[in-house]
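Our preliminary data section would be incomplete without showing what the modeling component actually yields. Below, a chain of 492 amino acids is followed by its predicted structure, encoded as tokens that our downstream tools consume directly.
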Amino acid sequence: MPTNGLHQVLKIQFGLLNDTDRYLTAESFGFKVNASAPSLKRKQTWVLEPDPGQGTAVLLRSSHLGRYLSAEEDGRVACEAERPGRDCRFLVLPQPDGRWVLQSEPHGRFFGGTEDRLSCFATAISPAELWTVHLAIHPQAHLLSVSRRRYVHLCLQEDEMAADGDVPWGVDALLTLIFQSRQYCLKTCDSRYLRSDGCLVWEPESRACYTLEFKAGKLAFKDCDGRYLAPVGPAGTLKAGRNTRPGKDELFDLEESHPQVVLVAANHRYVSVRQGVNVSANQDEELDHETFLMQIDQETKKCTFYSSTGGYWTLVTHGGIEATATEVSTDTMFELEWRGRRVALKASNGRYVCMKKNGQLAAISDFVGKDEEFILKLINRPILVLRGLDGFVCHRRGSNQLDTNRSVYDVFHLSFSDGAYQIRGRGGGFWYTGSHGSVCSDGERPEDFLFEFRERGRLAIRARSGKYLRGGASGLLRADADAPVGPALWEY
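Predicted structure:
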């Protein structure tokens, strides 16, 4: 299977939360650091880098400034170094409860404090020197076992999660990381949680909560007994093993989860590659051969469709469309035109893709009619987490409205009908648009929203008024944007 960006390990970015629930912050002014921020945003985001000297020390780089945290011999700390020096080297000491202690390697002192009174001068560990790791990446991803090189997915027949997938195909390969009480849960696509004994449960009980550890850029999940999740046995069942230290078997990569879609043509049949290399609308059910991984090019905003048989859609002689390309090229790129509940595809020859009488797809049309329109359905986000420019979408406390600037997130449930999506939140209430563009989350009846996949990893959501949902200065979700740009684009 060619890569072409299909399997991209996510760069682990995170925030560090102190004992008073404030995040370590790197300020632009004076390159000072403090622990005053109540939420995780750009200034509170850090990246862990290995020490170039190949030792056990690590470097902490502010993803906001691109500079490194340093601690001098007298305990003064800053985030000013453009290149890492001796004072930038720290040791990460994981504690039994999963929190971190950061120790200056050259000076042996511990880093901590509150507000703007941070230093690296403590000779003993107190609560002020304890930091909780809070991932800053989008929490929906694929999980790859480092030792087995297999993807974790939900096995419904065995009622378990297993690391036995060659490719992360279909909805069962989607995992959502849920952050609560300073720990993480692994949530499956059917909204269950993985317990450390391998069972799937409906509530995030204590044995379904894990602390994160990093090792050489990989992730390990430690349970409440100090044991680590690992694939076990021939089937690769995911459960806590015997090891109390993470080795290769206990390490995982998080990979970006690209949208996987099905398309329905005007003949009400699914577009498929089941009968060979030709892309045709000739199937009555949606299975692997009818599922396509969709990637959007960041520069051109055009997209590719990758099939389960290992080929990209590509334009061939006389306008035909085949799933045979092994590399991305001009002929594998298609322009998306959003037409309400339908979408039209324009190929590299400047013509629209249509369904011919025999069901085969071909880019031979100069205009868009019924045969050039398709229903496009996102299948690998039955549960949805949205992040905008200012943070995640979350229910506002004591209100039926939604915040868009939170460092914690709510998980929403999606349903689909005739080209539109219905979004359901906490308590089963549906999203709907109220007066003056407000968006509420306690509706008894579903309202249709249109999803437009505009950029790589980002979509726009259009309300029935024709306006797009955006995050505003008030921090509330509103349906009043005229164009799908900036604050009207959502990472999903």
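The radius of gyration is 24 Å. DSSP finds no helices and 48 strands in the chain. Preliminary results of this kind motivate Aim 1 of the renewal.
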